[in-house]
Amino acid sequence: MLGLARFSLIIAAFFVAAHPARATMIYDEVSGGAGIIMKGDPYFVGAPTKTSMGGGGTFSIFHTLSNGSLLEGQIGLVGRFISASGPDSQYTMFSPYPTFRIQFGRIYVGAGFTPFIFSSNSVTSLSSATGGLGFMGESGILWPITPKFSLGLCGGAQFVSYSGGMSPAPAIDAGLLMRFYLSASSDHGRARQMNQDFHGWRYPLGNPKD
Asked: How many CB atoms lie within 10 A of CB 152?
């Protein structure tokens, strides 16, 4: 499992290094909202079939692989956190996922996997879970605010596969996201201005000036 994750990271690094510099864009993303864990047992021993509503969130960094086209490929790393409670305990998960996204206009979908899963029956003391592989799917919609910042809504689901079966199945989180564009070439910025991210800016204090 560890070898598979390392292989995926090597492939990702190759694509980033091979892509022309003039087409690059890097963005950072954070999100927070509600979360729930379903079918937590046997991964969390004694967990209920469905926990009460808890909290969840992500922090991410991504690199685009296309030159500002309407359909974009993006590769990055998503750290996904969720914590929810049962009758007798608090169940917490955190996993970093190497992730591939496809963004069409203002809508994106993504998927990732990782052997690095951290969990506990509390919020403060996470420990590494061995022998499992985590899978993650996500989607979101963006609302451009400025050329450097977008708001949006997002959601994701995590599944953990290991020798004891599939559990949790799934752990779900959804909430509000904030995206910060860290760098972009001028060619890439102009291309994006004509399509998804900058088309329809929202300025509460007036219109932008050239």
From this structure: 20
Q: What is the CA radius of gyration of the chain?
A: 19
Two tokens, residue 58: 């992500």
Structure confidence by residue, pLDDT tens digits, 157-207: 999 997 767 889 999 999 999 999 987 554 444 444 433 444 445 555 445
62: its two tokens: 């991504």
| Beta-carbon count within 10 A of 4 CB | 12
Q: Which CATH number fits domain 2-193: 3.40.50.1360, 2.40.160.20, 1.20.1440.230, 3.40.309.10?
A: 2.40.160.20
pLDDT tens digits along 66-102:
766 778 999 999 999 999 988 888 899 999 999 999 9
Beta bridge partners of residue 162, listed in sequence order: 165
3-state secondary structure 19-32: CCHHHCEEEEEEEE
Is the separation of the CB atoms in 125 and 29 below 8 Å? no
